[in-house]
Write a structure and sequence with these properties.
single chain; 3 helices; alpha+beta; globular; 7-stranded antiparallel beta sheet; two-stranded antiparallel sheet
C-alpha cells in the first residue's frame, strides 16, 4: 500500500497515512486549491500534480466508478486547480481496492478476497478493464457476475 502504477500513487482518503510524508504534504497543499465543496475520497499523486476524485461508494461498490475529478497542478505561483471533470458515460472504475486503504481498514479483507478471486479467474490481467462498460462486457463474456464483493459464475 498504497497502489502504485508507474510514478503514480493512488490512495483512498482513509489510507492517506500510508503515503510518505512529502506525498501527504503535497495532498494537503493541493487540497487548499480545490473548488469549494468538492468532496473527494480518492487521490492520485504524481510529480507536479495531484488528482482528487469523487467516486461511488467505496464500501458498497465492488468497483467504484469515478464520478468527478479535479487536477491540481503545482505552479511557481502555487497550486492551481482545473475545473471539475464529470464522468457520466463509461466512467473509469477502480480495481484492487485493498491497495488503496490501510491493512487495518475494516473492509480490507473483503476487498482483498475479491481481488484474489478476480486474479484467479484471469480477469485482472487485461489492460482494457479500466472503464465500466469494458469491465462489465468482460464479466459477461467470461461468464461472471459480482454480487456485493463476491465474484460468482453466472448461471
Amino acid at each position: 500500500m498504497p497502489k502504485r502504477v508507474g510514478n503514480r500513487v493512488y490512495v483512498h482518503k482513509d489510507g492517506l497515512r500510508d503515503l510518505v510524508e512529502h506525498q501527504v504534504a503535497s495532498v494537503r497543499k493541493a487540497e487548499r486549491a480545490l473548488p469549494r465543496g468538492f468532496a473527494w475520497n480518492v487521490v492520485r499523486v504524481e510529480p507536479g500534480f495531484v488528482m482528487f476524485g469523487h467516486t461511488t461508494s467505496w464500501q458498497s461498490n465492488a468497483h467504484p466508478a469515478l464520478l468527478q475529478s479535479v487536477r491540481v497542478q503545482f505552479t511557481p505561483r502555487g497550486p492551481k486547480a482545473s475545473g471539475v471533470q464529470t464522468y457520466k458515460k463509461n466512467p473509469p472504475i477502480y480495481h484492487r481496492k485493498e491497495q488503496f486503504v490501510t491493512a487495518t481498514h475494516p473492509l480490507y479483507a473483503r476487498f482483498a478476497t475479491l481481488t484474489r478471486a478476480e486474479e484467479e479467474a484471469g480477469l485482472l490481467s487485461r489492460s482494457d478493464i479500466g472503464r465500466q462498460a469494458q469491465w462489465e462486457a468482460l464479466l459477461r463474456k467470461e461468464g461472471y457476475r459480482i454480487v456485493g464483493h463476491r465474484l460468482e459464475k453466472s448461471r
